[in-house]
Amino acid sequence: MAAMAAVLRGPGRRFRWRTQALAGGVRGAARGVAAGQQDYDLLVIGGGSGGLACAKEAAQLGRKVAVVDYVEPSPQGTKWGLGGTCVNVGCIPKKLMHQAALLGGMIQDAHHYGWEVAQPIRHDWRKMAEAVQNHVKSLNWGHRVQLQDRKVKYFNIKASFINEHTVCGIAKSGKETLLSADHIVIATGGRPRYPTHIEGALEYAITSDDIFWLKESPGKTLVVGASYVALECAGFLTGIGLDTTVMMRSIPLRGFDQQMSSLVMEHMESHGTQFLKGCIPTCIKRLPDGQLQVTWEDRTSGKKDTGIFDTVLWAIGRIPETRNLNLKEVGVNINPENQKIIVDAQDVTSVPHIYAIGDVAEGRPELTPTAIMAGKLLAQRLFGQSSDLMDYNNVPTTVFTPLEYGCVGLSEEEAVARHGQEHIEMVCLKKPPQLVLGLHFLGPNAGEVTQGFALGIKCGASYAQVMRTVGIHPTCSEEVVKLRISKRSGLDPTVTGC
Amino acid sequence: VKELFSSLGVDCNILELDQLDDGIRVQEMLTEITNQKTVPNIFVNRVHVGGCDRTFQEAAILGKRVLVLDFVVPSPQGTSWGLGGTCVNVGCIPKKLMHQAALLGQALQDSRKFGWEYNQQVKHNWSTLTEAIQNHIGSLNWSYRLSLREKGVTYVNAYGEFVDHHKIKIQQLERGSPGKLKVWAKSTEGPETMEEVYNTVLLAIGRDSCTRKLGLEKIGVKINEKNGKIPVNDTEQTNVPHVYAIGDVLEGKPELTPVAIQAGKLLARRLFGASSEKCDYMSVPTAVFTPLEYGCCGLSEEKAIEVYKKENLEVYHTLFWPLEWTIAGRDNNTCYAKIICHKPDSDRVIGFHILGPNAGEITQGFAAAMKCGLTKQLLDDTIGIHPTCGEVFTTLEITKSSGLDITQKGCG
């Protein structure tokens, strides 16, 4: 039987053994169904950036694909539709609120350019939030339509493994569905971490899952954390006129070039964001009028202090969504330190036909574009004739703080660690042709500036080649091709005019 | 090196390391700060110049006597300006600032959609803008004069001399600024005529080279009689060996500030330093700062077809919707990106074009990549930065030749 099935299971063959979805969701009943006789060629768990890209690509290659997506409401009750973190509680709403803040700055600039705008100028959170939320909802809808167009089956159910080829999905109503597939991709992403050991952390505080869906203004806000999520949120909150404080345990933007990170933070400080450095919160209490009283400790002095805020936002990292998948049952290994799924270069987990991509996978950048590309390439390797792997080197990224920071390649610290201090000059290799190892840009439109140079680095650009490129005038990015002063020279890089 | 400085009449502080007690320590220190182990180790004005060879190069620059003559012939309307040339006074700088003023007007409109609330009545005051811009230009004029003085360059504000179709008629109806002008015009394609009254008529029908009144004929420097431009070889030399030309005045070269700056620097280094590096005029990126900005590098589609033939080219393109435009309610099928690839040469990107906000910022990096031999494959292999406009170039799929629809229907 199995041999016959194998013969029949050639590419392009439509004939397929069918398994019945059993009524009542009986665990174990689907055991014993051999590979090649599943409901689907591909089942994707998680309808985010990586999952959807993989599913759509596989469908385009003629396969039978299903996507299951489910959003467990946040402790505050926030939930959202199809599309994953990026669309709903990440990149998209973040950049739109960042833009709202930038526009506030532009209104101030406009005076200098002759625009006469009468005071008072105020910002209405509700109007912005509604506009952002409507846009996100249109994207949710767009994704549903796309899946439909590509004939990808979509289930809004919470999935967990029953056996290697089968998951059981539970809908909000409680109804259970069994789905089986030859190949299963786990792309469940992550969620914000809560410091559960801090009293009041869960009950009274919010995270990035909630901030973009608030109907009312968060008011005076305390952001706890030093990640880009913390700084970006604090940045736009300050920009729209809210009293905002950032509480950090130690350094800002760990893992990023530290010189650039300090500059980002300094800019925020000089533009109205308050910083409590070297402090950790110890408890949150709710006051009778609804405000929150936060107690914290200064790590160096040991001193305790308190403050009152309308909102407290945790931005202390994210944890992968692997706890409720029942991975142990099927033998998919996770890294016990961070709960991420361990994968090889082909995105394969410890179980041959189960894969993991995106934020949930160990050792991958937590970025939308890398997840999308990984998803596409995986589908092409599984169902196309490809053997292309992702190249995770020199992935460009941008932090959308009030003063934006774009970077690609190595930070100064990494470059020194990798090549030795004596071989580094301005994040170029000193040895001719002085390959550019890293590029860091702090300024407006940093993302736009950095993208093209990321291409340059991918082409193996040398310092000389970058310098031979003529600048576009007047822009900010032309400064990159005019870089002459090395840190080693000790010369003053301050611009004194023109 | 000691002789060189003496001949230039430059005062030197000389430290003979072998005659110092702690000479070795000093040498170690020098190695640390300059990464040079050898002597002589030379500093000029506290700047590390290098060893013997380098110093001779730089001294050639140091030692030269340079004169700059700059004079602005007032426009027919009587406008004049200070040191710095077109870019600073009547080009790039004031242009981009006024463009920014216009963009800020657009931003004011957008801002309401993002929740900003203020009086509906928003007016623009022209004189506030021009005063601010002219003050800034004034500061640039000043800093140029300072800079020339610091470098010991002599500057003299004097004029230097070696010894149809579009027919329009303009009548002044009212004097004053801005006054009233009546304009009659005729179509170039049919018999239609038009008549309209304007406060201001601005002619932007091209630029002439300022070469006619330099007395070039007296020294035999040939110019293109039609447009006044000066033809030069690849080292910017005119037909008269010791006379060079750079910038907008050149025949067949881009009229751009950064090109002129690059050419000028390299020319000085070739003449007075020991350099042989020539200016590379190929694939110069540029941007047009229209309300919807246009950035480009390399060949236009027309030129590419002319040079390489259509069958050797593949054009990838897409419309795109900047995220910031979504809530602002601006159209989703206005911004456009395309690349022209040369198929026989590994799909090398020979033309890059983008129409959208911040086009200049986006184009710059891709220009550097094109200088390094950018191909379509490399674009596909590169991860985009999300969410930006520039990332569209990393996901281009649809070719013009396929005829497929590139209109955006919402999300990616």
Automatic annotation (TrEMBL), chain B:
Entry keyword annotation includes Ribonucleoprotein: no
Q: Where is the Pyridine nucleotide-disulphide oxidoreductase dimerisation domain?
A: 284-395
User: Glutaredoxin domain spans which residues?
Assistant: 1-49
Q: Which InterPro entries match?
A: FAD/NAD-bd_sf (IPR036188), FAD/NAD-binding_dom (IPR023753), FAD/NAD-linked_Rdtase_dimer_sf (IPR016156), Glutaredoxin (IPR002109), GSHR/TRXR-like (IPR046952), Pyr_nucl-diS_OxRdtase_dimer (IPR004099), Pyr_OxRdtase_I_AS (IPR012999), Thioredoxin-like_sf (IPR036249)
GO CC terms of this entry: cytosol; mitochondrion; nucleoplasm
Give the keywords, sorted: Disulfide bond, FAD, Flavoprotein, NADP, Oxidoreductase, Redox-active center
Q: Where is the FAD/NAD(P)-binding domain?
A: 192-264
Listed GO biological process terms: cell redox homeostasis; cellular response to oxidative stress; glutathione metabolic process
The Gene Ontology terms for molecular function here are: flavin adenine dinucleotide binding; glutathione-disulfide reductase (NADPH) activity
Annotated Pfam families? Glutaredoxin (PF00462), Pyr_redox_2 (PF07992), Pyr_redox_dim (PF02852)
| UniProt keyword Flavoprotein present | yes
> What's the cofactor?
FAD
Q: SUPFAM superfamilies of this UniProt entry?
A: FAD/NAD(P)-binding domain (SSF51905), FAD/NAD-linked reductases, dimerisation (C-terminal) domain (SSF55424), Thioredoxin-like (SSF52833)
UniProt similarity note: Belongs to the class-I pyridine nucleotide-disulfide oxidoreductase family.
The record's section on PANTHER family has: GLUTATHIONE REDUCTASE, THIOREDOXIN-DISULFIDE REDUCTASE
The name under which this protein is listed is Thioredoxin reductase 3
Query: What organism does the UniProt record list as the source?
Result: Ictidomys tridecemlineatus
